[in-house]
Please model this.
Amino acid sequence: MSREHVMQGSAIAHPNVALVKYWGKRPARGNLPAMGSLSLTLGFLSTRTTVRFDPAGGQDALTLNGRRNSRDLKRMQDCLAPLRRRAGESGSATAESRNDFPTGAGLASSASGMAAMALAGASALGLTEDPALVGRAAMAGSGSAPRSLHGGFVLLSIDPEGNWSCASLLSPEEWPLKVVVAVTQAGPKQTDSRSGMELTRRTSPFYKAWLASQSADLEDARRAVAQRDFGRLAELSEGNCLRMHAAAMGASPPLVYFNGATVECLHRIKTLAHDNRPVFFTVDAGPQVKAVCLPDVLDEVCDALGQVSGVRQVLSGDLGGGARLITG
Ligand code: 2P0
Model:
């Protein structure tokens, strides 16, 4: 395909929080996760990304939050590779991406970042009519990114051969849960997810048990979502979260993503739940705590977490839709 002009596309995507988590890749299968996952798309946090392809060539480059970023350049190139192959595009790619929330701190910035990158890149190259290709590009960038292409409650399924699909189970309107994020640390985490999950897979004696428990959790959570069974989803999500962290803590050297405020927030949420407030917790690979609740207890949950010593910021809002194109 020969083109003379710079081609550009822009997209917005929201991060997601996994209730049944992905933690471990299939060996020798690129970026393919070893297990499926189920997530909520967070409508109140966003990544906006513009991708440009210049047929005149030059160096690929990534700007993240206004600064040139070489650390994540390979991730961007991995994401754009399936799109470039399809388009026969050999020019240079530059991307500008901006998050309206802390980056690299366990708020799934790689999920929203790579979902927005894949869609913006596909738009620049005229490939948005092929959602499976956009999904493969997102997956090549980050194993949690295909989930951020979809809205509401999202299931990423993978069969034993590694064939995968990703789709929304319920829209935000069909079960309008709220999510509260307690930010307990502003800077980036010490061990990024990719290194952390690989260390866990290679060295944790608990990894096999974690992997073995995933498909039952996934099926049970899928059913709880279909039945809008909050209590069952709470039980499954908290158990799955703590088992992921237990597997990571069993790694050598151990991976402890929690800080003191993280643990205090978990106890505060358990106290609220014990007092019959419909709320549960989950924590990804970082120290931030996410509380999922029904709308009528949102203010109470925000107040309770805001009072925990060490909590710097409380963000909250609705579930959101999937990634979409914007004008750059
Ligand atoms: C998840 N996490 O399911 C889990 C729970 C973090 C904890 O997916 O290597 O950034 O880019 O595929 O997607 C974070 O891992 O890792 C993640 P890569 P990713 O949300």
Residues 18, 21-23, 31, 37, 108, 110-111, 142-144, 193-194, 284-285 surround 2P0 (CB under 6 Å). The first strand starts at residue 7 and ends at 13. The chain has a mean pLDDT of 94.
